[in-house]
Amino acid sequence: MLPATGRQHALPELGGGVPELIQLRRVPQGRIIVASHQQQMRTDIRAALDSEGHEVVEAATGVQAIEEACSGWHTVLILDSAISDDGIAGICRTIRRKSELGIIVLSRDDDRQYRIDALNAGADDYIPARFAMAELQARVRAVLRRVANPPAMSRHIRLEDRTIDLGARKVRGPHDRVTSLTPREFDVLEQLVSRPGKSLTHHALTQAVWQRDARGEIEYLRVVIQQLRRKLELEPDRPRYIVTERGVGYVFHMPLSQGAAVACCA
């Protein structure tokens, strides 16, 4: 079904509930891939993004989407879940092995597990296929804030057996094994490590990362937390660093007494 271009919904700005969180960056123009097997959908989305000054290319197949996404030129991929009969998790995983561009999935499947699988495979956000064009534009701007302006500082957090490089958005583990952080994982982690030892509520984190009234995104915040624990924790099921505060949110612990250290270098 085509997007409802006539409906406009104003999205709330961050309010006083998250004063301690990292300030949002100015939104740049993006280089965006619109991937859908439907020509009319590609045309409608392209026109909406063109109107905001973005550079847009189209992909009509999953193979074309992967080729464009892995070219190293683009910053955001808008991926229609119907572009592949086999599902899009495989497409997301293939792209994530070579690219850290933002991925927004247009989900035609109402199945919750389908959306969670896409997020676990590397997607940053999803939006139901029956969407207002203004909402898609807002989500593109939110992703661009994350992926188009990498931090100028190289910041390292040294844990017991691995090092988080926030500047490069990577985790270096035992035997120099390097694992990349997706844009969504990086944003959640950046918010947590900016206030070590301080509990951040689910609502505060989702507002800061999704940059809208994000009460419905708490489930997907939990997915991102699980992904981060798999990359950072020795025992993801018994986390030491990203700890759940039941009924509140999450807190990042830096066990300095056990050898962890934090270093920030220009």
Structure, briefly:
The protein has 266 residues and is an alpha/beta fold. Helix content is 33%, strand content 20%.
Report on the structure:
The structure is a single chain. By secondary structure, this protein is α/β, with parallel strands linked by helices. It folds into two domains: 31-147, Rossmann fold (3-Layer(aba) Sandwich); 154-265, Arc Repressor Mutant, subunit A (Orthogonal Bundle), CATH 1.10.10.10. Helices cover 33% and strands 20% of the residues. The protein has eight helices and 13 strands. It has helices at 39-50, 62-69, 89-96, 112-120, 133-147, 183-193, 202-210, 218-232; strands spanning 31-35, 55-59, 76-80, 102-107, 125-128, 154-158, 163-165, 170-172, 178-180, 200-201, 242-245, 249-252, 261-265. The protein starts with 30 loop residues before the first strand and ends with a strand.
* Structural domains: how many: 2
What's the story with the biggest beta sheet? 5 strands, parallel
CATH homologous superfamily annotation of the largest domain: Response regulator
CA-atom Rg in angstroms: 18 Å
| Backbone structural class | alpha/beta
Tell me the number of strands.
13
Mean pLDDT: 79
The amount of helix comes to 25-40%
Work out the helix count.
8
Write a concise keyword list for the protein shown above:
single chain, 266 residues, alpha/beta, Rossmann fold, Arc Repressor Mutant, subunit A, 2 domains, 5-stranded parallel β-sheet, 5-stranded antiparallel β-sheet, disordered N terminus, disordered C terminus
Task: Give the topology.
Layout: E1 31-35, H1 39-50, E2 55-59, H2 62-69, E3 76-80, H3 89-96, E4 102-107, H4 112-120, E5 125-128, H5 133-147, E6 154-158, E7 163-165, E8 170-172, E9 178-180, H6 183-193, E10 200-201, H7 202-210, H8 218-232, E11 242-245, E12 249-252, E13 261-265
Parallel strand pairs: 1-2, 1-3, 3-4, 4-5
Antiparallel strand pairs: 6-7, 6-13, 7-8, 8-9, 10-12, 11-12
